[in-house]
């Protein structure tokens, strides 16, 4: 199954930064599902509506090991780490620098 993660935007919820992500899952049988998700880097939430079958496929994919051979993380961990990196990058980009 091929997966593509895209950052949509970073929003602020109270005092917490929230990364809004788009996850596209595609398989060889030409099944495609697009999930809208949000993450603080510690938690992961599906924010779009889906059928039970699509949600079951997403859960199976999240629990699978990442295809990155350099680590032993699950796909869920990879998503949360990606969100955390994007939030940190956004904070860095929004910092003022004195010269």
Write the layout of secondary structure elements.
Blueprint: E1 2-13, E2 16-26, E3 32-39, E4 44-46, H1 52-63, H2 75-94
Antiparallel strand pairs: 1-2, 2-3, 3-4
Primary descriptors:
4 strands; alpha+beta; 99 residues; four-stranded antiparallel beta sheet
Q: What is the first-to-last residue Cα distance?
A: 48 Å
* pLDDT averaged over residues: 90
- Main sheet specs: 4 strands, antiparallel
Please tell me how large the radius of gyration is.
15 Å
Number of strands: 4
Describe the protein's architecture and organization.
The chain has two helices and four strands. With 99 residues, the protein is of the alpha+beta class. A four-stranded antiparallel β-sheet has the order 1-2-3-4, covered by helices on one side. A hairpin with a 4-residue loop joins strand 3 and strand 4. The protein starts with a strand and ends in a 5-residue tail after the last helix. The mean pLDDT is 90.
Concise summary:
This protein has 99 residues and is an alpha+beta fold. The chain is 32% helix and 34% strand.
């Amino acid at each position: 199954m091929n997966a593509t993660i895209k950052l949509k935007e970073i929003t602020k919820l109270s005092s917490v930064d929230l990364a809004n992500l788009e996850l596209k899952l595609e398989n060889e049988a030409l099944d495609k599902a697009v999930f809208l998700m949000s993450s603080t880097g510690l938690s992961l939430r599906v924010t779009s509506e889906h059928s039970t079958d699509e949600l079951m496929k997403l859960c199976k994919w999240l629990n699978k090991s990442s295809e990155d051979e350099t680590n032993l993380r699950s796909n869920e961990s990879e998503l949360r780490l990606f969100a955390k990196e994007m939030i940190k990058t956004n904070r860095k980009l929004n910092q003022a620098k004195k010269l």
